[in-house]
Amino acid sequence: MPNGELKADVHLKLKKAKPEQYPEEEFPVRAQFSKDVPTRQFTVQVIGNLIGEECAVLIKATEMEIMNNLRVPKKGSTKVVCYYLLSNASTFFIREPTEVKLCKMSLHDAMNTHDVDKIQSAMDKCLKFRVPVTDDTIAAAEARIEYLRLRTVIVDSVKRRNIAVVNETLGRVVGYRYREALVAEVEKLLAFRKELHSLQGYPQGLPSLREANEELYKLTSPKPSVHNTMKALCILLGYDGNVKDWKYIHKHLKVTPDKLSEMVILKRMEYMSEHSFPWHKMDFKVLQRVYKIIHEYPFEQVKHVSLAAAAIYKWIDKMLNRAKHVLRSQ
């Protein structure tokens, strides 16, 4: 009830004596009740010794009302909302078999790791020995497995770099009962989704020229748009061989034997990228030919096929613009 109070009462159940034999102030047990309004929690502490007897702790709720600017109990509104039955430990003594104790200890040890398979195996062993599914240890293991699996899903969704997958993962997190435990992971996932949106749905940003060269060197049969981009690059860099043959282009992507950190094509690209490069000495017809070849395919189409080729495409466009600016200023 929204406007009410809770209190705890103790009712003693005697096996060998009637309740009337105990005056209320001399009950062998008494209950202390405290509540924390901000966290909506209450605590009942039972003090005393049952001496083989049993007692019930009744949690009662009373609705309050305002009368003469005072909060007073509403008549007839008191109700019992919860029962706790307590007994002496010696009254109900259940001895767990040794094998059950051992398998539960193994499950506790497994839960201290991040190995889902290990926890699952230990839990299956407990269930094999007929540990009930309602046991606290089994419940804790299931919660741990669910948490670790969801963390793995989050990591995998980042690796896949796909907005649809990220959205699906976020949906699973929203439905997770202990999602507060994944606040940090969710914040990172939201930031990652924002990054993917900024890339307009593409899985990642363009690689560096060195990374692009290394990636293209791995190709043996590139798509036409990729081959066309590299064809334009070779003509711009001054290669006069058969650029229609991918083997010819691939040969110049190969690492040189004297300097393993350098590539033939990359070395020429780095030289042409320098501001001191003599663009005024470039053949205008060559530049026109490169411009015509590179724009046979739009940038977005090349980017959809290969990010490495897209990086080269973007670099060629940049060089053509620089040459255009220099030639116009002459």
The chain-level structural class is alpha+beta
Level-2 CATH architecture of the largest domain: Up-down Bundle
Mean residue pLDDT: 78
In the CATH hierarchy, the third-tier topology of the largest domain is known as Histone Acetyltransferase, Chain A
Q: What portion of residues is helical?
A: 40-55%
Q: What is the CATH C level class of the largest domain, in words?
A: Mainly Alpha
The CA-CA distance between the termini, in Å, is 86 Å
Task: Outline the fold blueprint.
Elements: E1 4-13, E2 29-36, E3 41-48, E4 54-67, E5 70-73, E6 79-87, H1 98-111, H2 116-128, H3 136-160, H4 163-174, H5 183-198, H6 209-217, H7 224-237, H8 246-253, H9 264-273, H10 284-294, H11 299-305, H12 307-328
Antiparallel strand pairs: 1-4, 2-3, 4-5, 4-6
Helix pairs in contact: 1-2, 1-3, 2-3, 3-4, 4-5, 6-12, 7-10, 7-12, 10-12, 11-12
Structure description:
With 330 residues, the chain is α+β, with helices and mostly antiparallel strands. It folds into 3 domains: 4-87, no CATH class; 98-198, no CATH class; 209-328, Histone Acetyltransferase, Chain A (Up-down Bundle). Helices cover 49% and strands 16% of the residues. It has helices spanning 98-111, 116-128, 136-160, 163-174, 183-198, 209-217, 224-237, 246-253, 264-273, 284-294, 299-305, 307-328; strands spanning 4-13, 29-36, 41-48, 54-67, 70-73, 79-87. The strands form 2 sheets. Strands 1, 4, 5 and 6 form a 4-stranded antiparallel β-sheet that branches. A hairpin with a 4-residue loop joins strand 2 (29-36) and strand 3. Helix 6 crosses helix 12 and helix 10 packs antiparallel against helix 12 (307-328). The longest helix has 25 residues, at 136-160. The N and C termini lie far apart (86 Å). Mean pLDDT is 78; it is low at 14-19.
